Every structure is written in structure tokens, then in C-alpha cells.
Amino acid sequence: MPDKINYESAVKELEEIVRKMENDQLDIDSLTEQLKRAQQLVKICKDKLTKTDEEIKQILEEQ
Asked: Across the 63 residues of the chain, what is the mean pLDDT of every consecutive 10-residue run?
């Protein structure tokens, strides 16, 4: 089931994960979970950017 998070929320969550990692706020078990979540968030962001890029190109071609 795809994640229904919007782009801005995904970026904020990614930033929070990075902040916690940089400040050594994650134990080894949390680190693994957070890295997996970060990977999911990066994919979500990439997919949304790709889709938006394709939509923009289509709109511009129609003009």
C-alpha cells in the first residue's frame, strides 16, 4: 500500500531523521528502522517529483 504522505511532509520527516542521526539521538535498533523509513521517504519524494515533471512537460507540450 503506497504511503499517502505529501511531498512537504515527507521532506520534513526526512529532515527530522537526519537531525536525529547527526545528533546521535538514535540507538542502534531505532537507527535501522529510521534508515528504512528514510529510504521509503526518498522514494516517495522522487516519485512525486518525477510525476510532477512529467505533468509539467505534458502541459507545456499542449500549448
From this structure: 82 97 93 96 97 96 88
